């Protein structure tokens, strides 16, 4: 119970803090005032909340699927290594998949969504503090994924060699 409290207390401020630096580094522009007014004044069907929740669950599940895959099949690929190696590989790739595959899923979901649901997604993004155009978000997530894999590549090499 205590860990849930600390995660809940620390993660939102951390996201707000990183949001500022990501916005500056990648030169992200937020939604204009007209878009903000348009999406906040509309009435949306209640099932849009469920669909948006499923969208988020699909994004998060990509990383967890990768983690589980490495945990289950990792000993086959790393037969003479500690079980910690596939777990660390799973954790490393879980985060990378959240960036890169999450961006691809965002692109697919955005393409198949209706205009009204796109407005709802914009509304939720503005409400959460991540109010940037989806195209900018997709490109930024892919860039973050590439940067992430470049940064963790020495750790990946170390795990493969030892």
Describe the structure.
The protein is mainly alpha-helical. The chain has helices at residues 2-25, 33-41, 47-77, 84-112, 115-128, 134-161. The chain has one domain (2-161). Helices cover 83% and strands 0% of the residues. The longest helix has 31 residues, at 47-77. It starts with a helix and ends with a helix. The model has no long low-confidence stretch (mean pLDDT 84).
Please outline what is shown here.
By secondary structure, the protein is an all-alpha fold. It has one domain. 83% of the residues lie in helices and 0% in strands.
User: First CA to last CA: what distance?
Assistant: 36 Å
- Which structural class matches the secondary elements? mainly alpha
Poorly predicted runs of 5 or more residues = none
**Which percent range fits the helix content?**
over 70%
Number of strands: 0
Number of helices: 6
Rg over CA atoms: 18 Å
Q: What is the strand content?
A: under 5%
Arithmetic mean pLDDT: 84
Largest sheet: none
Features of the shown structure:
single chain, 162 residues, mainly alpha, 6 helices, elongated
Which helices and strands occur, and which strands form pairs?
Layout: H1 2-25, H2 33-41, H3 47-77, H4 84-112, H5 115-128, H6 134-161
Helix pairs in contact: 2-5, 3-4, 4-6
């Amino acid at each position: 119970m205590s860990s849930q409290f600390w995660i809940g207390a620390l993660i939102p401020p951390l996201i707000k803090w990183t949001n500022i630096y990501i916005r500056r580094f990648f030169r992200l522009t937020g939604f204009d005032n007209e878009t903000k007014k348009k999406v906040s004044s509309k009435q949306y069907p209640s099932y849009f909340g469920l669909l948006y929740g499923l969208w988020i669950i699909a994004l998060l599940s990509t990383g967890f699927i990768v983690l589980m895959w490495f945990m289950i099949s990792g000993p086959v690929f790393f037969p003479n290594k500690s079980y910690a190696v596939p777990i660390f590989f799973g954790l490393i790739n879980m985060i990378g998949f959240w960036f890169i595959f999450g961006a691809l899923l965002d692109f697919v979901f955005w393409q198949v969504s209706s205009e009204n649901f796109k407005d709802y997604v914009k509304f939720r993004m503005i409400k959460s503090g991540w109010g940037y155009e989806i195209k900018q978000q997709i490109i930024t997530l892919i860039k973050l994924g590439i940067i992430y894999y470049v940064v963790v590549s020495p750790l990946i090499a170390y795990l493969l060699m030892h």
